[in-house]
């Protein structure tokens, strides 16, 4: 049975402000975490374990009135090169690291979807990249609840080569192309709300949607393939607080998975908007104008945080550096801390105001994977390190069955691991 949309709801399920509802108050209270291997070797077992963690965090998600529409969940993983080489493509993949993958949600209207695809191809070529080709992502729509199916987008992957871009600039140019596409699509007269770039990277790819944890590997058949391997998997189970679920607001986002709220959001948005006129970067050069506006204010607090973090990383800061700028520790005079670390926070306080609120934030850029808490520790997280080299972090402990004799250590603080 088809689900009728409300008069103030678009094709992606976004609802305009009406009555007591205001989209500015989009917050989450979710299950979040990651599974990672310390040796950095891609394994399918990491993906399997991440999905198991999601299933064990299902009580932190929510289900719609049809009992089969999830608020959203997903996994952000390293590009599974062996898997992509095993599937049928009508083009030849370059060496690992020499291509990027865009995970694209396209409008269900075929004509509009083709227009979006053409726009992305034209922008890649205009910016100096090489379009390798598209892949239709196998999905099973039949398992979706009525609400999720009514706003389901088409899911496709765009493969891009660096072309004229240097490998050093590859990630940054993919970011520029995505921002240009988002800005252009917003000007079209048609309802393009289903268009969304879940990820566009030469390092990571994002599988997410308006799904429950148990639906995720069934809807995305890729996740079940033994060659779908990654050394880490960032994961998220969404529970929307005062919000309405949509495909694009499912997490993880492009860098973070967030449990909690950004209570200072309006001030953060205003200050970021005020900075745009004076933004400058040697790495971006003239491209700096192409990525404005930096923040997509139609997103949730988590999505807007992700927008700001993305800018800091693309402009040359490391991911841990950028996270420490945005979510500083308490560093008052009574806090035990080295002088150098305190000086770091004091210096960056002049550059970036805190994005404050009760929060656990797991993050990755494909090189680092880590997590941090807000300065008050109001959204706890726990991690376990095993003797065979696995790290499991989540909103709570016990999300994965681990033999006691295999546990090397456990802690309730933030953590960061890298494979550079």
Explained architecture:
This protein has a single domain (23-418), classed as Glutamine Phosphoribosylpyrophosphate, subunit 1, domain 1 (4-Layer Sandwich), CATH 3.60.20. It has 420 residues and is α+β, with helices and mostly antiparallel strands. The chain has helices spanning 44-56, 81-86, 110-126, 146-150, 170-185, 216-219, 265-275, 301-314, 319-326, 339-348; strands at residues 27-28, 31-37, 73-78, 100-106, 130-136, 154-161, 196-201, 204-209, 232-237, 240-241, 256-260, 359-364, 368-373, 382-386, 390-394, 407-411, 415-418. The mean pLDDT is 90. It contains ten helices and 17 strands. The longest helix has 17 residues, at 110-126.
What order do the helices and strands come in, and which of them pair?
Elements: E1 27-28, E2 31-37, H1 44-56, E3 73-78, H2 81-86, E4 100-106, H3 110-126, E5 130-136, H4 146-150, E6 154-161, H5 170-185, E7 196-201, E8 204-209, H6 216-219, E9 232-237, E10 240-241, E11 256-260, H7 265-275, H8 301-314, H9 319-326, H10 339-348, E12 359-364, E13 368-373, E14 382-386, E15 390-394, E16 407-411, E17 415-418
Antiparallel strand pairs: 1-10, 2-9, 2-15, 3-8, 3-9, 4-6, 4-7, 5-6, 11-12, 12-13, 13-17, 14-15, 14-16
Helix pairs in contact: 3-5
Key structural traits:
single chain, 420 residues, alpha+beta, Glutamine Phosphoribosylpyrophosphate, subunit 1, domain 1, 7-stranded antiparallel beta sheet, 4-stranded antiparallel beta sheet, 10 helices, 17 strands, globular
Provide the CATH architecture. Answer: 4-Layer Sandwich
Q: Considering DSSP H and I runs of 4 or more, what fraction of the residues is helical?
A: 10-25%
Number of helical elements: 10
Subunit organisation of the chains: single chain
Number of separate strands: 17
Average pLDDT value? 90
What is the CATH topology? Glutamine Phosphoribosylpyrophosphate, subunit 1, domain 1
In what order do the strands lie side by side in the largest sheet?
Answer: 8-3-9-2-15-14-16
> Structural class of the helices, strands and pairings?
alpha+beta
Number of structural domains: 1
CATH superfamily: Aminohydrolase, N-terminal nucleophile (Ntn) domain
- Alpha-carbon Rg, integer: 20 Å
């Amino acid at each position: 049975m088809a689900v009728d949309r409300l008069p103030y709801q678009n094709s992606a399920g976004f609802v305009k402000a009406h009555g007591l509802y205001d989209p500015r108050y989009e917050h989450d209270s979710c299950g979040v975490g990651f599974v990672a291997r310390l040796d950095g070797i891609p394994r399918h077992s990491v993906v399997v374990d991440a999905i198991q963690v999601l299933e064990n965090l299902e009580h932190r998600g929510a289900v719609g009135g049809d009992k089969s529409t999830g608020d959203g969940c997903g996994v952000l993983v390293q590009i599974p090169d062996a898997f992509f080489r095993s599937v049928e493509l009508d083009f030849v993949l370059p060496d690992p690291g020499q291509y990027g993958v865009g995970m694209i949600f396209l409008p269900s209207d075929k004509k509009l979807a083709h227009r979006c695809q053409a726009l992305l191809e034209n922008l890649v070529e205009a910016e100096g990249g090489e379009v390798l080709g598209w892949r239709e992502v196998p999905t099973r729509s039949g398992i979706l609840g009525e609400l999720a199916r009514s706003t389901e987008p088409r899911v496709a992957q765009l493969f891009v080569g660096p072309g004229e871009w240097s490998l050093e600039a590859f990630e940054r140019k993919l970011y520029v192309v995505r921002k240009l596409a988002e800005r252009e699509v917003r000007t079209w007269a048609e309802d393009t709300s289903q268009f969304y770039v879940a990820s566009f990277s030469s390092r990571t790819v994002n599988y997410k949607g308006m799904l429950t944890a148990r639906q995720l590997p069934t809807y995305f058949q890729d996740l079940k393939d033994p060659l779908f391997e990654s050394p880490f998997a960032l994961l998220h189970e969404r529970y929307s607080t005062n919000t309405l679920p949509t495909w694009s607001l499912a997490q993880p986002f492009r860098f973070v998975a967030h449990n909690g709220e950004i209570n200072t959001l309006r001030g953060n948005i205003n200050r970021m908007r005020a900075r745009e006129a004076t933004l400058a970067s040697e790495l971006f050069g003239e491209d700096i104008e192409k990525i404005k506006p930096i923040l997509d204010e139609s997103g949730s607090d988590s999505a807007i945080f992700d927008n700001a973090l993305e800018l800091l990383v693309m402009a040359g800061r490391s991911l841990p550096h950028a996270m420490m700028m945005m979510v500083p520790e308490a560093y008052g005079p009574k806090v035990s801390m080295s002088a150098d670390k305190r000086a770091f926070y004091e210096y960056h306080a002049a550059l970036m105001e805190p994005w404050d609120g009760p929060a656990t934030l797991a993050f990755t850029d494909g090189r680092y994977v880590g997590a941090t808490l807000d300065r008050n520790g109001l959204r706890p997280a726990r991690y376990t390190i095993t003797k065979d080299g696995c790290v499991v972090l989540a909103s709570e402990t016990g999300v994965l069955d681990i033999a006691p004799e295999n546990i090397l250590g456990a802690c309730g603080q933030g953590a960061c691991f890298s494979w550079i």
